[in-house]
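User: Round two. Same drill as before: sequence, then structure, for each protein.

Assistant: Same drill it is. First protein:
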Amino acid sequence: MGLLKKKDTEKSSKFESRLKGGGGGSGSQISALRPRYVESLPPCTGNCPSGNDIRGWLTVIQLREKLGLSLDQACEQAFRIEMETNPFPSVMGRVCPHPCETGCNRGKKDGSVGINSVERFLGDYALEHGLKAEMVEGEGPKKEKIAVIGAGPSGLSCAYQLARRGYKVTVFENLPKPGGMLRYGIPVYRLPREIIDAEVQRILDLGVELRCDCKIGKDIAFSDIKAEYDAIYVAIGAHQGKAMGIPGEDGPGLWTGTEFLNHANSGKKVDIGTNVVVIGGGDTAIDAARVSKRLIGDTAAMASKLGAQVTILYRRTRAEMPAIEREIEEAIEEDIAIEYLAAPIEILRDDEGAVRAMVVQRMELGEPDASGRRRPVPISGDTYELPVQTIITAVSQKPDLAAIKSEELGDGWLNSDDWGFTGVDGVWTGGDNINLGIATTSIGQARIAALAIHAKLQGQAPPKIEKPAMIRSDRIKLDWYKPIERTQRRVKPAEERLAHPFDEVDLGITGDDALIESDRCFSCGKCFGCENCWMYCQANVFAKVEPPSHGHFFKIKKIEICDGCKKCWEECPCGFIVGE
């Protein structure tokens, strides 16, 4: 007893004090501390703005043999689980900054699970095997008509969720092709256009009508849309770049980040010279800089010969940059310079009005601002001139709501409740026209709004979305799981990337590696059939479930004979069994 830690001794005493009854045999004691199966929310799903059942699609692959599934059957089931919340697994597997991985409990052992890599594998698998979207079980055709304004990730996600519930959905898009910022904001070397086209087509195959080059407020009045449709979902995004508000800003040689990327991604000619400065530290800034590097010369050798230089100015430090870390690293590998703690205060032009230089103010970090990051403060008298031919400002974006010409909606940002309802009768919203965010947030907001629209049209209250308690690493038996090194994605080297500037850079992981990453999932808070409870219980409380199903491998058959040995919940590696 002296070898027991104090904490273990206290736990044992607490447990024993709750035993009831007497007798000498284990079967004659009845414990008040009885095991219960309690499914918890894994941090991957808890941190996913789309609400994806990540544990679900990882473990259906991991447990395929226990579930009696072939590899193809398991991959299709995993894809179906993903499609419940996200109709763009192949797209998001390429561009999502994967906040799901940040809280992954495996990170406390040997690195978080490569969730985003497996997501891409599933998306690509579905495209390669021609897997289609499916209707929600029990739903059929409905008479109500829904209008979606905007064919970006949010608008198309809402259309998908409503179409699979039987509604007639029409999506209006003012640009020539669907995809929104996926197509017109993200460079092709990050997101091949055939991937966008294929996953959009899968949504359209549900019967969704798409009208591109159709501007609400110009080609069709918003009031006419309201009169014709039973509900409207507004998802126009935030495609307007913001000006910096400094002297010399008006004139040629200056682009906003969204405008520049739109032109470049549309295949339009963009003349930027050989010396470009990009202002900002977000994903748009990194994308603009890397596209500039590619536009300057078709090869790295040509760019070097021209003396080309692409520089990013960011007013904070590397630690505060909101861009995806991997994208920052790849930009640096491509010889893009980043000057930190620097902000433009004036643009200088020559006699003909062309940009020739920028006056830059050195900064230092002060106290945190509303964003939680330390506020950049100018260092008095510390400025310098930076030669430049083209300036791209990627400091922020805003929606062009005024183009819709609706007094009800106004001309600023849209507001909504938790269900996406705007307060305007029959109008819901989501995505970047509410607040700037990542695509997976827009997809999640669209799904919630679609559920609200569905409930409203069926005369029901929106379903309650309740999240169980999130399970943390202190509930997981980390040492029970075998160490497995995290698989790294295959990325082309910088020289090859610049030699073939618009080929896809990130090649993802192999199918075999995707299986390994799925095996690394702890199945936090949900049974994965390890058999520990069944093996350690001498009182024979547990029984195997035949046939087993996903998350259901054992059952409690005789709780009244529990003798309170507490081994079941002490030995449950994933924290699914609760004993107190």
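Second protein:
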Amino acid sequence: MFDKIEMISKNFAIVSLVHTEVLMKDLLNVHVVFEDKDKKILGEVEEINKDSIKINFLGELTNDNFIGGILKKPSLDAKVRVITEEELRIIVGKDKESLTLGVSPLYKDYPLKVDLNDLFSNHTAIFGNSGSGKTYGICRIFQNLFKNQNDLPYKANLFIFDSYGEYINAFKNLNEINPNLNYKLISTSAKQKDKTLLELPVHLLEIEDVLNLLDATKYSQIAIVESAIELAKIFASNDPEVNAYKNHLLAKAITSIMYTNQTSAKIRDQIFDIVSNTYTHEISLQSVVPGIGFTRIFRNCFDIDSEGRFAERTIIAEYIESFIQEEKVWNINTRNVKYGLKDLQIALNFTLFSERYLLNEDMYDEAISLKVKLANLINGPYAKYFTKEKYNSITEFINDLVLINGKKAQVININLEDVDDRFARTLTKIYSRMFLKFTKALEPRASFPMHIILEEAHRYVVPNDDVDLIGYNIFERISKEGRKYGLILDLITQRPTDLNSNVISQAANFLIFKITHPQDLDYITKMIPNISSDIIEKQKSLQSGTCVAFGRIFKIPMIVKMEKASPPPESANCDIFDNWMINQKNINNF
């Protein structure tokens, strides 16, 4: 087969062939060994000419290891041969902690096994065109994991953010593989069977979550939301001081308006607007205001006399000022207080009526924008996903996420097909932020590993998102910090160019299915560490369900053919023939 080495360059060698047509067809991408007296160099056939082949140098083989890169080239006298099975085993690995990823089509379907820790304790990126087999591939990997006959991944926590409900069919019968394994469907659709309706406890949201929900874009809105969250906790508390504090805030807002240089009619309209939206028993439009020997209804105190002043200005001023307690140190207990969206709305109204916003037109407009968006959320179709009464902590919330009928679920499919892209992205960010906070608090560290599997990742992991407003992007933070806490990202996308490059740079494993778009190919070439033009060329001719895999899982890039997922995900193209065509004899039956 191989004759002799004709030329050695920096990164490749040219080897002449004993011409055999069958052999030449089978040589492309095959790994070969240059065997010298004191070393063995591993190479890969990149190019075949009429009487010679080009072999790229990959690294050095020892008795039990492979070292990427070479310090010394093979000699011209080195023997060239195809890699042996024993040497191949050194590269692909084979031990009790391994998982079958697929088979090698180049080596008679030799099983390609990967170390579980190398695969599942590192961030992974899966790229490929629509129809290239990405979804089938990821389903097959997890199905192989659950079919392990020796060690059961009972404590696995695989959170799939399923954009179109594709993974339901692949995992819904997980319990049939082993009765100790369970699948949980959390859905945005009330129509789906055997599901738990997606829910978010409002009181567990942090300021960045609420900013995302309300599409905040200005720095000044951060302080508004921060104040609203704090007030929501206070107002939802059962502390006896809460009502007095509400009266204090309302009275201050009303007083700040009463002593402005506006007309009496405009002052009255603003005060009525405040009290109509936010009120207490003591301060409302119908509250009784005591005078000397008589009483007045609150709204009647603002009747305007012939001089353009409030008829009962002295009485109402004294009444309002009686609720202001500037010297009081408020000590309201807000620990474990639960509140919902409507409580947050009331708190936001109180915030808007403070002097800081009422007297600043620009800030007031930005505050009103938040108010409108919160009202739309409360009155819109997504309000059903927000809960108030359940869960005292993030830990309690996440523990409930991984339980179904009192049993541990290993696959938690969060189906987002009934919400728009913006809301889906917000939900994914909120869950991911909670997961990171939860895992960072664990003792011992990384004792509850969690995978965030983002199907259609380009919908969520977008460049510069949130960085300008809140100072960080949650997926960037997870990609940089999550691994040491056991929080792992798996990104699946057909458009890698739309992904956040800082997140991709932290991925340690790559499964590249067929990609043809020039911009995506250029992006992959520039952004993925250690990728070569040879890998790019390989993936262009891949069949569906076959990928180029490299990173921590393999010491060198390997072409992997995966088994079909069984049962398959619902990601295949529609059957046009069966849905369009009918026999002419049966047309009248339709």
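DSSP finds 22 helices and 25 strands in the chain.

User: Perfect.
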